[in-house]
Structures are given as C-alpha cells and as structure tokens.
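User: Can you help me understand a structure? I only have the sequence.
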Amino acid sequence: MNRTLILFSYDWDRPAFDALAGDWPQVSAGFDLFSFPSNVRLVWFDIERFVTLLAWRAKWQKLTAVASNHEQFGALTAAMLAERMGWPGTPVNAVLACQHKLYAREVLDRVCPEANIPFARLDAAYGGPVPQDLQYPLFVKPVKAAFSVLAKTVNNTQELHEHTRFRRRELWVIRHLVEPFERVIRDRLPEAGTAHSLMLEAPVDAPQYCLDGYVRLGQTVVLGTVGVRTYPGTQAFMGFDYPSNLDEGVQAQAAEVARKFLAAIGFTHGGFNMEFFVEPRTRQVKVIEFNPRMASQFSDLYRRVDGVDLHAIALALSHGQDPKTLPRLAPTAALASSFVYRLFDATKRPHHPTVEQKASFRQAYPDAVFLEFSMSAREIARDFKWLGSHRYGIVHLGGQGPTDLRRRCELASALLGWAAPLTGTCLFPPDQAKVAASVAANDFFEMEEAL
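Assistant: Let's start by predicting it. Here is the structure, written out as tokens:
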C-alpha cells in the first residue's frame, strides 16, 4: 500500500493522523520543539541535510508521499522533500513567501493593497538599540515565527526596548528556530531579505477570523471560516468557534483576497489558512498572515460540524488525490469550539486536574479533545516573556446551539477545576441561536450529577 511520511506530528496532529492510519498507512519523522530531550536536535538541525536523509529513507521504506501541518519546520521540509522526490506538494517558494511575514506583506501590497496594513522592518538587530523616531502605538512581531511568539502591541520607545531585550538563552533559542529557514531563503528567495529580524505593523482593533481551504490544480477551494475570541484587553486567544458569524459577502471577499495572494506566490497545491481582521465600519478584510498548511487545531471543529476531516484532506493532497472524493463523516454538532485556558499572572501556577477529575471529565465528555500543557517554571516564565500569558490547557467541545455549548464548557471546566474561558463576545452565527438552544434536560442533570 502507498505509505505517507508524516513530519513533526505532535499535539493535534499525532492522534488525528493516527486515527487515519488504517486507510492511510504512514511513518513519522521529526522532533518535538517543546520537550526535552527531543528539542536538543535544534543544536544541529539543518533542513536541507534533513531532507537528504528523508529522501534516502523514502526510497528505503518505499514511501510515496509526505505531509505536515507543522508551521516552524514541517511545511517547508515537506515541500522540499516532495520537490526532490517528484511527489505532489506545495511549491517551495510559495511556502517561503508565506512564512517570511515581511515578504508576504510586500506581495500583498502589490496584488491586493486594500487588504494590507502599513508595515516596515524594524531597523534594529536582536537586542540592539531601537529607533527613536517611530510613531506609536505599533504592533511588533518576528519576520519568521509561529504560535504568536514575541507578537505584541507597544505604546512607546521604552516598551519596544524592553520587548526586544533577550537573555542569552532566549537569544540562542530564537536564532536556532530561525536559522534553518534563513539558510533556505538565502538560497531560494534572496529578494525577501533576512528573516533574522522583527517587523512593525499598524495595530488593528477588530474582530479576527481564519479562512481555511486548499489549492489543487491551481484552483482554490474554501472550506470555511473560524471565528476567533481573545481575552479582553489582550491579543491572547481565548477560543476558536466554528462556524463563525461572518456574513457571506465578507467571506467571499476574504476568499478572493486569498486567491489573489496565493496565485501571486505560485501556491498551486496544498492546504492553507489565512488569518484576517474585518474592520467593523468598512467591512474590509485586512490580512494578518498566511499559513501554508492546514490549521490542525481546527480539524476537530470541522469534523464535528461538517463531517470534514482536514487531516484526511492533507493526506489526499499529499498523494495528488482530489479531497472532494473523500467520504464525509456524520456531523455531531451544530457548533464547535476550541476553548483555550490561560494565566495572566506570572506569580501564579495553573491547577493540574487530578486523576479523579480527569476521569469524571472523560466520563461526562467522552468525545472531548483535552490537552494539558505542563511546563517548568523556566518555561512558564518564557511564555510570559514571549506571549504575555501562559497557556495551560485546551478543551474541544461541540453543541447543538450557543447556550448548549456554553453550558457544556462551564460544566467541563468545573469538572477539571478550571475557570471557563467564556468572557467576551461570542462569535457564533446569530441564526444558530435558534438551533437547539438549550441542553436536553437529561443531559444537563447527568452533568450536574457528575459534578
């Protein structure tokens, strides 16, 4: 049978790909960037050398395709290996163009300027003096990064200066995360300039969304739009809701922006995710960034509501198959959310659910996705430095309406001993509020009994 090489498969990807292994035989490669001793490989990691080793392994194990939803290294490695082996894959330069955030802005400025925001490279080396003549507030972020690391709004020179001060250990991590990408882009896309840099953007205060889709034979297919909730007064994600409340006209506008940009960079094959704002007054789409891979965290949401599996789509594309031929699963919910649990006080530590609490949670919500992030004090401190908060858990739930889903989140959180992340505006479609808006009585009493 045809076998797929899955790269950097962790967190969301590992269980999702494993569940498909019966129909899509696979082997894995890569390492976990956030666990020891796996992440020691950062010391010597080189993408081109890694691709050479993988090409040898592919021939030895008779592999026929490669797939990855990993932003930092996986998407680029998969593209380079597919190119070398002659397999279906996203063009290497298209991946580079998406992941080099400054270059992506330059391309967008040429093909769809109305969807762009003012931007510039920060004229300062890592840890060096920052310019004194900038106009604040500004949004600062790395040219190459993932997970919103070091992305922050700064209001004056002092805040920018403090945000760009790095301890020796931090600077080592940053350089080793960026350098593998830097070596490839110097060779393949030198006009983009160095990725060892921060960039500045005009801050935008507007609702945020994500457009998910794929390109096959040069044709863009849109799968849906996810709504994003943030903790009030921050840029930290509180939750992701599918389907979103975005009207069809704005969704069509977002899809057209994606088509123009992807065509401009030669993105002819593969999954993508476009993050964007919608200005409340003008209803104009403003792009945040493009990710040249499927959004793994959303796969479960689409599966619950639409019966569409983003991981199966990624596998089909890796073999050159049309994702439209994949069977759909039976939907289990009208709405679904990824709830993100965070701490904003660096002096506190999150509660770790006991074995009994986890068992009660599993009994009450057997289909829930549950992730707990246990970190050392040093890693938590780095979270606060780089992200402004500490993410300690994620729960995925589905519901038959907003009231149903909200109550499920409250009860699930209580079972785990966590505070429910429900503050702020709910982004569910208004018309969905009429769909099974309350929990079935028996279900509700069962949850109360579990508590």
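Now, to help you interpret it: The first strand starts at residue 4 and ends at 7. The two ends are 48 Å apart (CA to CA). Let me know which part you'd like to focus on.
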